[in-house]
Amino acid sequence: MKKILIMILTFVSLSSLLSQQNQSDYFLGNRTYCKKPDDERINKIYPLGIKAVQQNLYIGAAFKIFSEVIQKDNSFCDAYFWAGYTLRLSNMENDAVIFYHAADSLAQNRSIEFKQNLATLSMKVGRINLSRKKFEEMTKYFPDNPEGYYGIGLTSLFIEDYVNGLENINIAEKKYKSSNSDCQSLKAVLLTLNEKYEEAIPYFENVESYFKKDDTFNGYYALCLKQLGIKNSDRKMINKAQKYYEKVQNKNGLPEMVKKTLGGG
Fold first, then answer.
1. How many separate domains does the chain show?
2. Which residues belong to the signal peptide in this entry (predicted)?
């Protein structure tokens, strides 16, 4: 499962799931979700920690700053979040999830940034059920934001509730303000998994220029073409499916259903 997880997350671009951090004013450090401790030293060092994160410098020192703030006031949710953020930057992702979880719990559903970062990183480390739970909470508390629905669609690839995944990716598609290649690619996959092959083909075609070298894209596109070719007794489409399957460099990383369907030629 780990190989498949890595391939799918690469396919949908994990960085795009975290893109909100670059768009939100929260990451400028100008506000907090919890009350900041009224302490002269904390008021001095806390902004320094955020600045270090923003510049991606002295990350270890930044973690020590946020740890000190937490020791001063363990109800200050923002310090937990930033501490988790420094751990993620240091590739200590499982530890980061713990701090993100604490931040989200203390914030009491006020922060979409906390939920999205927790949901996305949980998925990356394989905690799919926690990830799904947080994406669902995003749709509940921030219903106008498409990312929660998109996340449910993405986690459906692992939970295998594909109908639910497709329903949510349809909602996400409507809520994005502009065309989103990651959303379209995921919809193509979910349409395929729901055996809606004719509907999936245009979505694969629309995003092919973005993902034409991606193993997961080529694998699922091949699956869609093969199944549609079999359904319509179209040998030309079946041959096209094999060509896309042959583009896959790491076939071992593909889901079994893809390998089983395409492996026979």
1. 1
2. 1-24
